[in-house]
Design brief:
The chain is α/β, with parallel strands linked by helices. 51% of the residues lie in helices and 13% in strands.
Length: 302
């Protein structure tokens, strides 16, 4: 299958490479000409514009968009909607908000263009290990694109699937990332408890390696955590500042909207927000309160 790929960041480039390995021809476009040149070197056909990319594809066309969520995705899909025709398909593989995907699908459907949202997990390892694909879209559109999904997934018969209509793919990926927040926070807190027990002088990487086999907490996330501990046991040179992609926030907001208690995911998100407070004003105020009502000592700032 010949596919248009828009967005050649690390994820998009790795996906394009895996698709080419699977026998699919790629026509690639990115605003960064160097990224396009790199894709051409890797075997793709380069396009100098969205117009050129669409012109290089045979109807019914399929264009996979891998650009940052929000305005970049909105602008790209809007531009493509004026270039594509009845029967063509746009796939959004980024981390878009699912309500935006539902809206975009309806807008494109009025023009006869199918919209497929593919929540994509796999990160930098996807090129070799395969991607987990949570797909939303019509049955017919997903069936037509099945060869692409089979090539991207860890295996043709697992790691991917249609989960529902347009928007469902990004909804499932959103909740997936919320769960990821909670799992990461639990590992981080557990290993910090081990780290603080100084009299045992625990080798945290060794503990991780033990847990990797037979333990109920064994997982790919534990594998990655153990690798990080092996590379840098003291986390030297790493600032205690944890970013978020937005999907954890969306998951918490959705939980509130649906009256679903989700304390673990919510607290994991709050922990990330807390990590960014260099001033820690609230903590200093708490210390002052304890001093006011109980005369507890206040540690002076250095």
């Amino acid at each position: 299958m010949k596919l248009g790929m828009v967005g050649l960041g690390k994820m998009g480039s790795n996906m394009a490479a895996r698709l080419q390995t699977g026998g699919h021809a790629i026509v690639a476009f990115d605003r960064n000409a160097d990224a396009v040149a790199g894709a051409v070197t890797a075997g793709a056909t380069g396009a100098a514009s969205l117009e050129a990319l669409v012109a290089a594809l045979e109807p019914p066309r399929a264009v996979w968009v891998m650009v940052p969520a929000g305005e970049p995705t909105e602008a790209t899909i809007s531009a493509l909607s004026t270039l594509l025709e009845d029967g063509d398909t746009i796939i959004d593989g980024g981390n878009s908000f699912y309500k935006d995907s539902v809206r975009r699908a309806a807008t494109l459907a009025a023009k006869g263009i199918d919209f497929v949202d593919s929540g994509t997990s796999g990160g930098i390892w996807g090129r070799t290990e395969g991607y987990s694909l949570m797909i939303g879209g019509s049955d017919s559109a997903v069936r037509r694109l099945e060869p692409l999904f089979r090539s991207l997934a860890p295996a043709p018969d697992r790691g991917w699937g249609r989960v529902g209509p347009p928007g469902a793919g990004h909804f499932v990926k959103m909740v997936h990332n919320g769960i990821e927040y909670g799992m990461m926070q639990a590992f981080a807190e557990g290993f910090e408890i081990l780290h603080r027990k100084e009299e045992f002088a625990l080798d945290l990487a060794a503990v991780g390696r033990i847990w990797q086999h037979g333990s109920v907490v064994r997982s790919w996330l534990l594998d990655l955590t153990t690798a990080a501990l092996e590379e840098n046991p003291g986390m030297d040179g790493i600032a205690p500042w944890v970013s978020d992609s937005g999907e954890g926030r969306w998951t918490v907001a959705e939980a509130v909207e649906l009256d679903v208690p989700a304390p673990v995911i919510t607290l994991a998100l709050i922990a990330r927000l807390r990590s960014r407070s260099d001033e820690a004003y609230a903590d200093r105020l708490l210390a002052a309160m304890r001093n006011q009502f109980g005369g507890h000592a206040v540690r002076k700032a250095t």
